[in-house]
Amino acid sequence: MRDQLFPALPPEWHAAYSAGVFTEFMEQRAAGHTALDGAIYEKGLEDFRAEIAASLAALDWEADPEAYDKSQELSAMDIACEAAIIFAERHAALAEFMAAAEPDLARRAELAEIAEVCRRVPARAPRSFREAVQTYWFTHLGTITELNGWDAMSPGHFDRHLEPFYRRDLVEGRIDREKAKEYLSCFCIKVNNTPAPPKVGVTAAESGTYNDFTQISLGGVNAEGGDAAGEVSSILLEALDELHLLQPQPSVHVAAVTAEPFLRQAAAVSRKGAGYPSFFNADLIVREQLNTGKTLEDARGGGTSGCVETGCFGKEAYILHGYLNVPKILELAMNDGVDPLTGRRVGPATGAAESFRDFEVLYAAFEAQLRNAVDWKIRVDNKLARIYAESVPAPYLSVVVADCIANGKDYYSGGARYNTDYIQCCGIGTVTDSLSVLKKMVYDEKRLAMGELMTALAADWQGHEALRREILASVPFYGNDDEAADSLMRRVFASEIAAIEGRRSLRGPTYRVNMLSTTCHIYFGKKLGATPNGRLAHLPESDGSSPSHGADRRGPTAVMKSVAKMDQARTGGTLLNQRFLPSTLAGERGVEALSSLVRGYFALGGHHVQFNVVDTATLRKAQAHPDEYRNLLVRVAGYSDYFVDLDIHHQEEIIARTAQEKF
Fold first, then answer.
1. Which pLDDT value is given to residue 204?
2. Cα–Cα distances in angstroms (integers) from residue 620 to residues 318, 614, 640, in the given order
3. Rounded to 10 degrees, what is the CA torsion of 481, 483, 485, 490?
4. What are phi and psi of 654, to 5 degrees?
5. 634: which strand partners?
6. Which of 273, 343, 531, 615 is least surrounded by CB atoms within 10 angstroms?
7. Are strands 608-613 and 316-325 parallel, antiparallel or unpaired?
8. How does strand 278-281 pair with strand 608-613?
9. Cα distance between residue 29 and residue 210, in whole Å
10. C-alpha distances in angstroms, 277 versus 234, 528, 635?
11. By the 8 A CB rule, do 250 and 590 touch?
């Protein structure tokens, strides 16, 4: 993708890309963040092949100008199904071969059962809990083999799909709770042991430790709107807590109807400090999807995959196009479109900062730079998407995503029932706080001349420490339930929505905003000079929808009140990181407090929150003595990682997050 496209792109795009204004996903990895629904547990691949044959037979070769393309796609789907069946049968044949030479009777019986299961699935629909788990695993292997391990392939609501098999097997005596836990534990180990591809390009600069982002959504609401959490939900959470793996990552979806014992179980696991489960607002996720025209039934069947991205499981292609560096865009607005780090023109000439007569003129320059950056990004995103659809189709994934067979179109070509393209906006805390400084000190109170501020930024605050301390002490910052700052956050958010929402891709008016940075806020920070909020050059920006590092001074409830002022239902996901000292969440009171905090934030309209529970002293000891802390997991972004495996920049970013000491 990179070799095909990059040499042909104009210098304006290359300048913005090199300056860190945005990144591109599709030049380095598969773009989708995909999760499946329950279709693969109701039908086998032979059933899907029958649907493919019917769709091929129904092609109108005279009236449909796309008939040939559809025939090629459908034929590819059929070949992919056949390949997956052969793949399973080879497992069966190997198990039978091993069983014939196995002297241990118990192991021979295990191998015989493996062979029986693999002869059944995925060719036909599963009949038992074990067959259902194996069905998904073969499907998972098929999609990541076809595409790329970074597709964030997820089973979606794995718990609710497996629950009927579990209940039936219990009644019929085929399984007990411990055996089900063993199967699920084996499955999780297999997911964890699937290697991600080597990191290249900007991805390598963002993080050297990205995993495959397999997320298991637990709980939520069922088709009738009731509590979807069941015994399998608890077993999966228990197994992942004991295994202490990097992935799959459990997420707990909390609705108003979610039973308190399940939320308490999740809170008890979270406060142990591994960074999971993450928590999602199931009711808001339904509203987010209804806002984009999905049916209520489909919306309730959806959820999140990857880090925080919302989609309709098994029925939607939701494509990620990379990150947008919003603080960098403000920096361009203050420098007439020129990158002060390189002296190169990156954006349009919108005037020097000293020429802006008031805050509104400055903000208009910011919006002009924002529109220009989004225009360039979408122009190239759409070209990449077209090349991807033509050169890297996904016929196997298309088989198991609703309506691709009926439409005769690939997952990447608009075949799915719903289609969404996400641009992830970064640094809302950094840009909000910077605007707050400009509005209060430069324009409203006129305590600071713009020229003096620009001089301090160019010097990276060296020789201007007194001014920096004054800013940190007197300016309202986002994350403290202060309306002066939070109103600016809402304004920036509205500008992002206006620049992105409803823009057209090759699949329609499908672009939406996603407030997610993963670890790109660290990479983007390296591309950003000093900022008006007192941040030093090249340090990380704020992450996701979180406040700037150290700016949140009034505790977690104030943070959540600030973030909830963002209309998160307009997004396809927001990410909020919080860090607690272990002592704050100790005992039964700590579990109760964490559960209440999650419910309170979601009642205000929050989409997501996740917690690190670790003190700074432990993290510093781990830096000094990594061999003694090999098992220390921390929450990085939409995933957890071993702290000692992170590079120094990512370690320091974790440490810089405010450690909340009280509620």
1. 67
2. 39, 11, 18
3. 100
4. -60, -45
5. 641
6. 343
7. unpaired
8. antiparallel
9. 12
10. 12, 32, 10
11. no
Radius of gyration of the chain (CA): 25
Q: How far apart are the first and last CA of the chain?
A: 49
Sign of the CA dihedral running 353, 354, 355, 359: positive
Residue in 547, 540, 509 with CA at minimum distance from that of residue 524: 540
The helix (H) or strand (E) run that includes residue 612 is: strand 608-613
pLDDT at 149: 55
Residue 647 zone, left/alpha/beta (φ > 0; ψ -120 to 50; rest)? beta
Per the DSSP assignment, residues forming a β-bridge with 221 are: 227
Per-residue pLDDT tens over the stretch 41-86: 999 999 999 999 999 999 999 999 999 999 999 999 999 999 999 9
Contacts (Cβ under 8 Å, ≥6 apart) of 61:
67, 68
Q: Where are the domains of the chain?
A: 1-28+314-575, 35-42+127-290+581-646, 44-124
Kindly list the strands in the beta sheet with 316-325, ordered across the sheet, starting from the edge strand earlier in the chain: 316-325, 418-426, 511-514
Nearest to 42 by CA among 124, 134, 142: 124
Integer angstrom CA distances of residue 439 from 6, 334, 430, 566? 39, 13, 14, 20
Burial (CB < 10 A; 0-12, 13-18, 19+), residue 550, is middle
Determine the Cα–Cα distance for residues 150 and 140; give it in Å rounded to an integer.
Answer: 12
Structure tokens at 73: 């796609």
| Beta strands 608-613 and 577-580, pairing class | parallel
Do 70 and 93 meet the contact criterion of CB atoms below 8 Å apart?
A: no
Select from 216, 215, 198 the least CA-distant residue to 207. Answer: 198
- Active-site positions? 307, 309
Residue with tokens 């960074």: 275
Q: What does each C-alpha distance from 45 to 51, 417, 448 come to in angstroms?
A: 10, 20, 68
Q: Residue 357 is which amino acid? A: R
Reported residue count of the chain is 663
Alpha helix locations (H) across 392-543? 395-399, 404-407, 428-437, 450-458, 465-474, 483-500, 520-526
Q: What is the DSSP string of 14-74?
A: HHHHHTTSB--STTTS--B--B--SHHHH--HHHHHHHHHHHHHT--TTT-TTHHHHHHHH
Residue 375 to residue 367: CA distance in whole angstroms: 12
pLDDT at 569: 97
Which two three-digit tokens encode residue 21? 């204004």
DSSP readout, 108-169? HHHHHHHHHHHHHTTTS---SHHHHHHHHHHHHHHHHHHS-GGG--B-BSHHHHHHHHHHHH
pLDDT tens digits for 194-217?
877 666 667 666 666 666 789 999
Positions of the chain with pLDDT under 50: none
In CATH, the number for domain 1-28+314-575 is 3.20.70.20
Smallest Cα–Cα separation from 247: which of 651, 654, 636? 636
